[in-house]
Specification:
- By secondary structure, the protein is mainly β.
- Among the domains are: 2-103, Spermadhesin, CUB domain (Jelly Rolls, Sandwich); 117-237, Jelly Rolls (Sandwich).
- 12% of the residues lie in helices and 30% in strands.
- The chain has two helices and 18 strands.
- The strands form four sheets. Strands 1, 3, 6, 7 and 9 form a five-stranded antiparallel β-sheet that branches. A five-stranded mixed β-sheet has the order 10-12-17-14-15, with no helix packed on it. Strands 2-8-4-5 form a four-stranded antiparallel β-sheet, with no helix packed on it.
- A hairpin with an 8-residue loop joins strand 14 (175-180) and strand 15 (189-193).
- Residues 1-105, 113-237 form the CUB domain.
């Protein structure tokens, strides 16, 4: 959206002017809409401006020669990529001139006006419009768009850049609604609007999906008095979540024994998948547990036998038994005892 004015606006334009503005949308499929916000020109002296549907003054005039004073906005829509605006003034009295704005957006309503449409929102800005934009929207419209950003922590931002909707005090006829979430709820309600031709300088309305990674946009119109609709800009702050998956494998003792046997064999084997019932699985698990205990016991015994024994503290090693030398011959026999003692002593 942009704005342009006659030279000297809003004070006064100069005399003897011939000004042209060529607007180009860049694509034949993207028309241009121009709307005059205000003009003040002296018709009596030939001051006027004109809007053409094309790139030359020989193209069809959409407005005719406009002059005088008008504070009511008028809209003009091209059928192609070009629009030409001209302004002339003579040598006599000058007025304030004019102020005009223009926008160039193509219809990006998608399928949302025939059934609910889900739109994936990325970090790149995209735009949403009413059906037929920039021409008038259809009567009895019931449009519904769900904006969805990947990632549960992502936040969607929307900016209502421009709107021209049938206006009434309570927005009962034509209106746009915005919700934070994918459904209509008073707790997620953000906006209901039916503003008529909001000026470019009025600013934009900005909202975000603070409680969800989705937003709902709806548009409804009645059976009469259709305007041009709205332009809505949307984008998202994407939050990427990384998930780590851990896989745990459980093997029984019998499975371990089979794997050891298979690894030592040079011939290949074909593994067959066998489905077993829950009781068989329980029995196999019990047998496997018992086999595991037996294997552990055998391994522990073998380990103890293979280790060298240590001498207990305080015990000496016993040397092998050897033959002692033969005993020497006995001593010679004792001499005869002294003469026997007399039985009695006789004193002389």
């Amino acid at each position: 959206m942009a704005r342009f004015t006659s030279p000297g606006y809003p004070t006064s334009y100069a005399n003897n002017l011939l000004c042209t503005w060529l607007l180009d949308s860049g694509s034949d499929s993207q028309p241009i809409m121009v709307f005059s916000e205000h003009y003040n020109m002296n018709c009596a002296y030939g001051d006027s401006f004109n809007v053409y549907n094309g790139n030359t003054s020989s193209s069809t005039s959409l407005s005719g020669s406009l002059c005088g004073v008008d504070l009511v906005s008028n809209q003009y829509v091209s059928t192609g990529r070009y629009m030409l605006v001209t302004f002339t003034s003579d040598s006599a009295t000058a007025g304030q001139g004019f102020q005009m704005s223009y926008i160039s957006y193509k219809d990006s309503s998608g399928t949302g006006c025939t059934s609910e449409q889900t739109i994936t929102v990325t970090s790149s800005a995209e735009y949403l419009t009413t059906k037929n934009f920039p021409d008038s929207y259809n009567s009895s419209s019931k449009c519904r768009w769900v904006l969805s950003a990947p990632g549960t922590g992502s936040v969607i931002h929307v900016e209502l850049l421009w709107r021209d909707i049938e206006n009434d005090a309570t927005c009962d006829y034509d209106y746009i609604e915005i919700y934070s979430g994918s459904y209509r709820c008073e707790n997620t309600f953000l906006l209901k609007d039916c503003s008529e031709l909001v000026s470019v300088n009025s600013g934009t309305l900005t909202f975000n999906s603070s409680t969800s990674n989705t937003m709902l946009v709806t548009f409804n119109s009645d059976g009469s008095y259709n305007k041009h609709g709205f332009i809505l800009k949307y984008y998202a702050d994407i939050v990427t979540t990384t998930t780590t998956t851990t896989t745990t494998s459980t093997a029984t003792a019998s499975t371990v024994a089979n794997n050891v046997s298979d690894s030592s064999s040079s011939s290949s084997k074909t593994v067959e998948k066998t489905e077993v019932s829950i009781p068989m699985m329980i029995g196999s698990a019990a047998a496997g547990a018992a086999a595991a205990v037996s294997i552990i016991s055998i391994v522990m015994v073998a380990k103890r036998l293979s280790l060298p024994r240590k001498s207990k503290k305080g015990i000496r090693t016993v040397q092998p038994l050897v033959h002692l030398p033969s005993r020497p011959a006995p001593y010679p026999s004792r001499p005869a005892p002294y003469p026997s003692r007399p039985d009695s002593l006789h004193f002389v």
